[in-house]
Amino acid sequence: MTEHSVENGWDASIGAQRNGLPTWHEELIFAEELNECMLAGGTGYIYWYMQAHWAFIGTGEQQHMPGNEKGKVLRRAYVMSHFSKNVTGSTRLNHTMNFKTATNAPFESSAYIKGDSLIVMAIDTTKNAVDINLTLPYPVKSCEQWLSTEEAVCQKTPVDMASSTKQLTLPVPARSLVTYIFQIDRQAMAIADQPQTAPVVETAYDLQGRRVDDSSRGFCIVRFSNGCTKKIFRP
């Protein structure tokens, strides 16, 4: 474990820290930090600060940082919640994507399974919206979207799905963090029950190994149509 500082409020034009809360782009860089930790095989992410203007709870320094209300839940906390609420307790799935993957790439994603849920996370730091084409390992019957943008965080809405499917095309808005939570359609995965037919007697033998017919009485060895052999008593 190591401490890694995600820069906030650094203005390269003046070479110093500027006043104000972190920008939304910086919050998305933090989301990428979390995502890359998961992709690297991490089992958790520890954030050292709970109350700070670059952390989860506001400190009240509004004179130089408008919006930094004391005790207010800040945007970084909502970014963290995408992972802490949905990814905790899940198993990460290997996935492929057409976009080039790299640290702090313009577009990043990850995928997980937890119980009956398939979870896909997408981070778009660019000014352009994209559509992602998903091929899922299991058919899904419903989907819930968690969307965070600069205008609003953790907006939860259902995704319209006409029928159970494994392939979808979904939009990822510009400069956004999106979590898609799919419900696996277990019924569509199930093998249909096969009709059961009672086995019939093919041949029967007495205890001396002589073949007998259906009218014989007493103990006999019966071979059924399903291949089973059984000793029975005919009164």
> Number of helical segments?
3
Helix amount: 10-25%
**Which CATH architecture of the largest domain?**
Sandwich
Radius of gyration: 30 Å
Describe the structure in your own words.
The radius of gyration is 30 Å and the shape is elongated. The mean pLDDT is 84. By secondary structure, it is mostly beta strands. Strands 3, 4, 5, 6, 7, 8 and 9 form a 7-stranded antiparallel sheet that branches. The chain has a 4-stranded antiparallel sheet with strand order 11-10-12-13, with no helix packed on it. Strands 1-2 form a two-stranded antiparallel ribbon. It has 2 domains: 10-189, Golgi alpha-mannosidase II (Immunoglobulin-like), CATH 2.60.40.1180; 201-234, no CATH class. It has 3 helices and 13 strands; from the N terminus they run ββααβββββββαββββ. 14% of the residues lie in helices and 36% in strands.
In a few lines, what is going on in this structure?
The protein is mainly beta and 235 residues long. It contains three helices and 13 strands, in the order E-E-H-H-E-E-E-E-E-E-E-H-E-E-E-E.
Question: What is the secondary structure topology, with strand pairs?
Answer:
Layout (H helix, E strand, L loop, with lengths): L9 E2 L4 E2 L6 H16 L35 H12 L4 E3 L13 E8 L2 E8 L5 E19 L6 E5 L5 E8 L3 E9 L1 H4 L11 E5 L5 E2 L5 E7 L4 E6 L1
List its traits.
Immunoglobulin-like, single chain, four-stranded antiparallel sheet, 2 domains, mainly beta, 13 strands, elongated, 235 residues, seven-stranded antiparallel sheet, 14% helix, 36% strand
